[in-house]
Design goal:
97 residues
């Protein structure tokens, strides 16, 4: 259903703009609540996963499972690249407006 609504309103790039296009101001508020609620509920999980990956990467004791260390490095590399990408976009926006 969300995909169908997104196809009907291609200029809507977030849930609040999609809600505003579909239901007006109440839809915009509801979409913003859903989007921010999802962010706030997922943030502790993301921080926990990244923290455990960093701990696995920096642990001097080898893991019993060799695949776990590969997963730790992969998650840590993805997290660092995401932070760098966000920093780069913010810097470009600040620099060139």
């Amino acid at each position: 259903m969300l995909r169908t609504l997104g196809a009907a309103f291609p200029k809507a790039d977030s849930l609040d703009t999609l809600g505003a296009a579909v239901l007006g101001k109440p839809g915009q508020i509801w979409g913003l609540v859903i989007q921010q609620g999802n962010f706030l509920l997922y943030l502790p999980v993301a921080l926990l996963v990244c923290g455990q990956a960093l701990q696995g990467c920096l642990s001097p004791v080898p893991n019993e499972d060799d695949w776990a260390s590969c997963d730790d490095y992969w998650v840590f590399i993805v997290a660092v690249s995401f932070v760098f990408k966000c920093w780069w976009q913010c810097w470009r926006w600040w620099r060139w407006g």
